[in-house]
């Protein structure tokens, strides 16, 4: 395995560090104090566009047909770690096509790519898109969704409810996972592109969260949402051999090492703040404190290495489902341990609610929940390694 980074990659990471210190952490602290997501019109998002953020990786309709560029997942993971070190909620709030982008690039028709990703090529304003999978009765078990899709001539009609969907109320469009028959499980799932403002899409409610307050997590309903058949991702021919569920899993499998990298960044931040506090309060003279700090530092390195291993396999275009799940399960746990240790070191100071470690403690918990809980990751690992029954 080769995890070395060249000068250009190092420069990208240094730039992320500078932006993180100057822009991201202050924005995250402010959002946490306000207990509300960064509002759509905030100048922070305009500065994101000025830096070239919020754009799609799709090359555009007139791009020459050439060999796909070699992926650099390692760099993506290192950047995800560095940015989350400063504030994971803020990087989730930044504009862009978000989670559904990869599914649209990989499965969408040419017309769908141009229609839905085209505005993200050179965005005239901050724009968002989102992926609507989670429901009140279907979280970790993504195959249990109940949002119903019914064919009606040349249209589809959607009915259901979604919850904890990032950026839903501000998105230009939403990729909605639905089923044509709940009794048929994965094979009956379809993914639909739903534009904001479509009649029947509404009831948006931004949830109040324990942590990661800089971005919105939204619940909403779909009531007789009528869509043209052209809004079915990839067209009907794509939905043989469980392609609808495959689209959802493609999104999650690509995202899990990124979530793991985010968790490593949070763990690093908690560790650094713990060391800083221990040094300022003369706690480093205690053997037990030094021992706990050393143990967390070891675990952070271990989590980073399994995360990079998952990224390296992806760059080599090799299967990485075990490593992706291992990285997600391990890194999320380490982030919680690091933040918990820091909170214990703070003692009464941690109870005031105004210290960065206290915020990190609240932020870290979500990393074990989003995009597949730690328990689900361990089930996936067991199925792959020892043939655990489904």
Number of helices: 10
Distance between the termini: 32 Å
Overall pLDDT level: 91
Question: Major sheet: order of its strands?
Answer: 2-3-7-6
> How many β-strands, per DSSP?
7
Textual characterization of the structure:
By secondary structure, the protein is an alpha+beta fold. It is built from 10 helices and 7 strands. It has a 4-stranded antiparallel sheet with strand order 2-3-7-6, with no helix packed on it. Helix 3 packs across helix 6 and helix 3 packs across helix 7 (287-315). It is globular and about 75 Å long. The two termini are 32 Å apart. The mean pLDDT is 91.
Kindly summarize this structure in a few lines.
The chain has 390 residues and is of the alpha+beta class.
Can you give keywords for this protein?
390 residues, 7 strands, 10 helices, globular, 4-stranded antiparallel sheet
What is the topology?
Blueprint: H1 7-34, H2 43-50, H3 73-93, H4 101-107, H5 110-117, E1 129-132, E2 148-152, E3 155-166, E4 173-179, E5 189-195, E6 201-206, E7 217-228, H6 243-280, H7 287-315, H8 321-346, H9 356-366, H10 374-386
Parallel strand pairs: 1-4
Antiparallel strand pairs: 2-3, 3-7, 4-5, 6-7
Helix pairs in contact: 1-3, 3-6, 3-7, 6-7, 6-8, 6-9, 7-8, 8-9, 8-10
């Amino acid at each position: 395995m080769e995890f070395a980074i060249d000068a250009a990659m190092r420069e990208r990471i240094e730039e992320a560090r500078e932006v993180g210190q100057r822009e991201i952490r202050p924005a995250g602290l402010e959002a946490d104090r306000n207990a509300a997501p960064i509002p759509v019109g905030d100048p922070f998002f305009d500065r994101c566009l000025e830096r070239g953020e919020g754009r799609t990786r799709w090359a555009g309709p007139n791009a020459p047909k050439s060999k796909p560029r070699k992926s650099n997942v390692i760099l993506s993971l290192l950047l995800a770690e560095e940015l989350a070190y400063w504030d994971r909620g803020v990087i989730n709030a930044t504009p862009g096509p978000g989670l559904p982008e990869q599914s649209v690039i990989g499965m969408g028709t040419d017309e769908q790519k141009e229609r839905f990703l085209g505005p993200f090529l050179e965005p005239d304003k901050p724009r968002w898109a989102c992926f609507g999978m989670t429901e009140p009765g279907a979280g970790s078990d993504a195959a249990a969704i109940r949002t119903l899709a019914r064919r009606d001539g040349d249209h589809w009609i959607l009915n259901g409810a979604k919850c904890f969907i990032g950026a839903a109320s501000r998105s230009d469009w939403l990729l909605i996972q639905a089923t044509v028959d709940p009794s048929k499980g994965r094979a009956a799932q379809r993914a639909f592109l739903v534009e904001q403002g479509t009649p029947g899409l509404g009831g948006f409610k931004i949830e109040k969260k324990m942590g990661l307050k800089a971005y919105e997590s939204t619940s909403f309903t779909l009531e007789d949402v009528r869509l043209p058949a052209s809004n079915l991702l990839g067209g009907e021919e794509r939905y043989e051999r469980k392609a609808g569920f495959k689209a959802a899993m493609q999104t999650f499998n690509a995202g899990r090492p990124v979530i793991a990298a985010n968790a490593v960044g949070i763990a690093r931040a908690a560790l650094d703040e713990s060391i800083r506090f221990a040094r300022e309060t003369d706690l480093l003279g205690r053997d037990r404190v030094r021992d706990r700090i050393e143990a967390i530092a070891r675990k952070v390195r271990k989590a980073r290495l399994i995360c990079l291993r998952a990224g390296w396999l992806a760059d080599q275009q090799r299967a990485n489902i075990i490593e992706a799940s291992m990285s997600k399960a391990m890194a999320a746990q380490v982030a919680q341990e690091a933040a918990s240790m820091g909170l214990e070191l703070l003692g009464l100071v941690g109870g005031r609610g105004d210290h960065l470690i206290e915020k990190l403690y609240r932020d870290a918990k979500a990393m074990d929940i989003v995009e597949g809980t730690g328990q689900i990751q361990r089930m996936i690992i067991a199925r792959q390694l020892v043939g655990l029954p489904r």
